[in-house]
C-alpha cells in the first residue's frame, strides 16, 4: 500500500488527484495557472501546493506527472511543450526534492492511454488505440499491454496525419491534418461557417459573434436537436472514422477508445464514426472491425494514468509490464 | 545447430532456401506454380519437393513458411489469401507430417520484417517500420524487437490507408488507397498515361502497347535517363514519403526500411521519399526524422525470416523475443 | 418551307431524321456502323443511304450533320474525333455533292445545345448550360441565344475539368476529371465496387461478372428500389451538382439542362444534384440558383439541332443569331 | 468628342480618371474613404468631389462607375457589395443629378475585362478570359467582343470555384475555393506557414510578426531572390494554371489575361501558371493552348473600362457591341 498522487499539468491548469491502488480517484484539486507566459517556478509551486493539499498534508509514496508535452527517454525532462514553460530542465529531480517523494514524468496522452488500458474502457485488452478529441487530436497506442511511446517518445501524434492533400491549413504549417477535420476546433469551424446562412440556435448562443462560438455550445445545441450542431457532429464523426480506418489498417488493435472533451457527445459522435470506419477499413468484410467505445475515465484519465505509472515504477522500471 | 529451411509461398512461385543460424542463405530453389487456379495439393507437393531438394535429401530440423495471406493466431492455418488455394486447412500439421519436421507458418510481410530486423537493415534497432513496394504496398512493424502482428494478425495493411479522399479507385473497392499512388502499379500507371504525349523510350520498350508496359521496363528506362520513367519514380517516391510521414507521426519508429521490387531503384525512389517525409512529418524541425534505408535482404527476406522464426520457435514460442 | 434532314454520326451508329420547320421529328432511321475501324467511305455511304431513306426518296433542302468530334471553324471538316474515321477531309463538300443538298456540319453537343435552346427545355431562355451524361460528360453553352463554340471550336469540354486533385485516373491521362465521378461510367464503377460486399440485385443482373455490369442495369435496379443502385445515382448526382456549381459561378446561365443516357433516371439523379448545387454554389443565399431540368428532346437532340442549324444557315450564316 | 470620366469605387478608395476617346488615361485622382462603416452619402460626396477635380471644373459628357459589387440588370443599382454601403439605392439617378452628366454603372471586374478587351492586352481578340488576383480572384469573360455578364449579372465569380474537395476553409463558408490557393491571400498564407521553420528575409520584413506579413513584402522578397517568397509564387502560379485549365476546357477563349496586384510579379507568377495549364488542359496536345499574358492597363483598368462603357452608351445601349 502506498499514497499515490497523479498530477495533470496543462497550459492553463494543474489538476492533482489522490489515487488508490485500484485506480480509484479518492479526491482531486484543480488550480488555474496564468497561461503561456508563466514561469517554471510558478508552475512548480502550483504543483507542490496542489499535491500537498490533495494529500491532506500526509507523506506521499510517489507522484506521477502527466505533462502536455514531449518527455525525454529518461523520463526526467520535458523537451518540447508549446504551452508549458519547461525547456529541458530536470523537472523530476527538482520536484522529487521539493515533494520528498519518488516522481515519474510522462506525456499526458501516454498517461491517459495507460489509465484507460489499466482501469478504464480497455481493461483486460492486450492492445488498444486511444484517440482524444480536444482542441486537436492526441492519443496513444497500447500494444501487448504496454503503451508504445515510440523511439523518440513521439508516437501517438495522430492529429497531424494528413487526410486531405492540399487540405485545410493547420497551425503546424502543413495542410490537411486530421485534426482540422475531426476535433473540437473542427466542430466549431463547421458551425461557424453556417451561422449566417442556416437557421440555428447557435446564432443566439454566441450572440451573433462567430468568434464567441465554443465547442460546448455546439454540444449543447446538438443535445437540443439543433440541425447545424448535429451536422457538425456528423461531419466530425465521419472524419474520425476515416482516420481511424487508417490507424486500424496499420496497427490492428483489439479496441478503439475515444476520449477528450468532444467525446462527451457519445453516440452522436461515435455512430457516424463507426459507420465511416466500417466503410473505410480495408477487408472490413473479412475481419472483425474493432469496437469503438467512449473513454471511461473522463478528464481525470491523465492524472490517474500518471499515478498508475508511479505505482508501477516501484521496482525501478517506469512501466508495469 | 540445426538445418533450417525457409519457404516463401506466393501466388505463382515457391521459393525455398536453406538458412544458416546466422541468417545466411546457403542455397535456394525456385519453382513456379500454375497460378490462381492451382489446388492445395499442387502447392503442398511443390513445397515438399522444393524443401527436399534444397535440403539435399538431408533431414531438416524445422521449416518456416512465409505465406502471402493472413495466418490465424495459432499459426496453423491460412485464413484468407487471394492468390493461394488455402482457405483454413491445417497446413502446418499436414506439412509437418509430410516433411517430418517442425513447421511454423506466418504472413510473408511479417517474416520479411522479422528478417530485416534480425539480420538485415534493422539489425540492432529496437523498432522499425518495413514497407514493401511490389504490385501493392505491404509491410510490418517491429516494436521492442518483435514484429507486431496486430490483434487479429492483420497489422501492416499499409497499402489501403487512404491518402486521397475521392481519389483513384482501388481493387479493394475503396478510393484513394496509398498503393494507388506508391507501388509498382502506380509506377506503370504514371508512365502509361504519358506514353502517347511525352517522348519516352518506353514507347519502344512496350512496342507501342501500353498494356505491355511493366515495372522493370520503367526501372530500366529510368536507369538510362528517360525523363518519363524518372518522373514516375519521383512521383511514386513523393507519395511514399507522404504516407510514411503519417506512419511515423503515429508510431515513431527508429528506422524505416523500404523493400519490394520497386526498391531496387534505390535513391531514385528514396531521395524524393526522404524529401517528402521531411516536408510532411509534423515537428520534423524538433525531432530526428528516422533514417529511410533500402532493405538489405532482397527478395529472399521472406524465406529468411520464416527460417528465423522456425529457429526461434525451438523452445515452443513462435517468437524469438 | 423546306425538307430538312438532321443526321447524328456517332462511333457505332448513324441516326437520321426528317425534321419539320417547327423542330418536330417527323420520322427517323437508325443504321449501325462497324465501329472504330470503319473507313470514311463506309460512314459516308451509310449517311447517304440513311438520308435517302428518311427523305422517302424526295429531294432535300439541306442536311445538318452532328458529328462526335471537333469541327473546324469553317464547318467543313472534322479535325479530331476518336471514334470517327475522318481526319480533316472536306466532308461537307463531298456529302453536299452526293446528297445534292446544302450540308452543314457541327459538333454533336453543340447541335444538342442548339436544339434544346431552340425547341426543347431552354426555349425562350437567353442563356443555358447543357450537360450531357453518357459514358463521359459533354455539353454546350448557349449565351445570348447562340451556342458558344469557343475560339477553336473546343468549348464545352466539361468532362475533363478537374474536380479532385490527385483523383481517379482518366483515359485522358490526367487525374480527377469530372467525368470520372459523374457519368455513366462512374455509375457503373460505383456499383461494381460494391458487388462483392453489399447485397444487391445487380449481382444477378450481371450474372456475377462485374465486367458485364452496364449503366442501364443500374438504372433498372434503382427503379426497383435496389439500394446499391440508388446509392450510385446519389453519388453521381452529388458530383454533378458540385461540378455544376463551378460552371454556374463562372457563367451564370439562366438555366441548366441535363441530358444524355444517365438523365433518363430523372429526379433520382437531379435531386441530389440540386441539393449539392445549392450547397456548393457561392452566394446561393443572395441569388437565384438556376433551375436544373432534364433535357426535353432525348437522344434525337443532336440530329434535331443539326437540322435546325441547316435551316438557320439558309441565308449563308451557320447560326440563326 | 466628349469628356469622359471613369471612377473605380472600392471599399477603401475612390479612383477617378479623365479618359480620352482612345482609352488613354489623361489624369487621375485618388481619394481614401473611411472603409466599411462609411455611409452612402460619404461615398457619393467623395465621388462627386473626385470627378469634379479630375474634370478640372469643366462639364463632363458622361461618367462610368466601376463598383466592387453586383450591379442589377438595369445598371442603376448596386444590389450586393460586401465592402460598399449601397444596398439597392438608385445610385445612377442620384449621381447623374449631382454630376449633371449621364452615368453608367457596372461591376469593376466587368469594367476591367471590357477595358483590357478594348484598349489593353486583348485588343482585337474576339474572346478572352480575364482573371484578377488580388485578395481573392475576380474576373470576366469577353465573348464575341462583349463582356458576358451572366443571367443575373453574376458571371465571373471564378474565385469560388471549388478546386479541392474538403480543402482549405474559405470566408464564403465553403471549402477548397480556388482563391484559397491562388491569390494575394494564398501568397501570404504560404509564406506565413514557413516563417518559423525556413530561413527567409520575410522574418525581418514582418519584424517577426506573421500577422504583419503582406503580399507586397512577398513580392519584394521574391524579387530579391528569397526562396520562400519564390516558392510562394510558384505555388500560387501552379494553382492559377490548374484552375485556368478548367475554365479553358469549358470556354475555349482566344486569350487569357491575368491582372490584379499579384500579377505585378510577371513571369514569376505566369511561368508556373503556363506550365500547369499545359499539363492540366485536356487535349493540350491537339489544340493551341491560349496565350497567358499579363494585363496591360494596371490598377486603372476598372476606371478606364467604366469610362469606355460610358462612351459606348452614347446611343442608349450600355454596351459598344
TrEMBL record, chains A, B, C, D:
<dbReference type="InterPro" id="IPR000600">
    <property type="entry name" value="ROK"/>
</dbReference>
<dbReference type="Pfam" id="PF00480">
    <property type="entry name" value="ROK"/>
</dbReference>
<dbReference type="InterPro" id="IPR049874">
    <property type="entry name" value="ROK_cs"/>
</dbReference>
<comment type="similarity">
    <text>Belongs to the ROK (NagC/XylR) family.</text>
</comment>
<dbReference type="InterPro" id="IPR043129">
    <property type="entry name" value="ATPase_NBD"/>
</dbReference>
<protein>
    <submittedName>
        <fullName>ROK family protein</fullName>
    </submittedName>
</protein>
Amino acid at each position: 500500500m502506498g499514497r499515490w498522487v497523479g498530477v495533470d499539468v496543462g497550459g492553463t491548469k494543474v489538476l492533482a488527484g489522490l489515487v488508490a491502488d485500484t485506480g480509484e480517484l479518492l479526491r482531486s484539486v484543480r488550480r488555474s495557472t496564468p497561461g503561456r507566459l508563466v514561469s517554471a517556478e510558478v508552475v512548480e509551486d502550483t504543483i507542490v501546493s496542489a499535491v500537498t493539499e490533495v494529500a491532506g498534508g500526509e507523506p506521499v509514496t510517489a507522484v506521477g506527472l502527466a505533462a502536455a508535452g514531449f518527455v525525454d527517454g529518461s523520463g526526467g525532462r520535458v523537451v518540447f511543450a508549446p504551452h508549458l514553460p519547461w525547456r529541458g530542465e530536470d523537472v523530476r529531480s527538482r520536484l522529487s526534492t521539493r515533494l520528498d517523494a519518488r516522481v515519474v514524468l510522462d506525456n499526458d496522452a501516454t498517461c491517459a492511454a495507460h489509465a484507460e488500458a489499466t482501469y478504464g474502457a480497455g481493461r483486460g485488452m492486450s492492445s488498444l488505440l486511444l484517440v482524444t478529441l480536444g482542441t486537436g487530436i492526441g492519443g496513444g497506442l497500447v500494444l501487448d499491454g504496454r503503451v508504445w511511446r515510440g523511439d523518440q517518445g513521439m508516437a501517438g501524434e495522430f492529429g497531424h496525419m494528413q487526410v486531405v492533400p492540399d487540405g485545410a491549413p493547420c497551425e503546424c504549417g502543413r495542410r490537411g491534418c486530421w485534426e482540422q477535420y475531426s476535433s473540437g476546433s473542427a466542430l466549431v469551424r463547421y458551425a461557424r461557417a453556417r451561422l449566417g446562412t442556416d437557421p440555428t440556435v447557435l446564432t443566439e448562443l454566441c450572440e451573433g459573434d462567430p468568434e464567441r462560438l465554443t465547442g460546448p455550445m455546439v454540444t449543447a445545441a446538438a443535445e437540443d436537436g439543433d440541425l447545424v450542431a448535429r451536422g457538425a457532429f456528423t461531419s466530425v464523426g465521419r472524419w474520425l472514422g476515416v482516420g481511424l480506418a487508417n490507424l486500424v489498417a496499420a496497427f490492428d488493435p483489439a479496441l478503439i477508445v475515444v476520449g477528450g472533451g468532444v467525446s462527451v457527445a457519445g453516440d452522436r459522435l461515435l455512430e457516424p464514426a463507426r459507420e465511416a470506419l466500417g466503410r473505410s477499413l480495408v477487408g472490413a468484410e473479412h475481419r472483425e472491425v474493432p469496437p469503438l467505445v467512449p473513454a471511461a475515465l473522463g478528464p481525470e484519465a491523465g492524472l490517474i494514468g500518471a499515478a498508475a505509472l508511479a505505482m508501477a515504477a516501484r521496482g525501478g522500471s517506469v512501466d508495469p509490464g
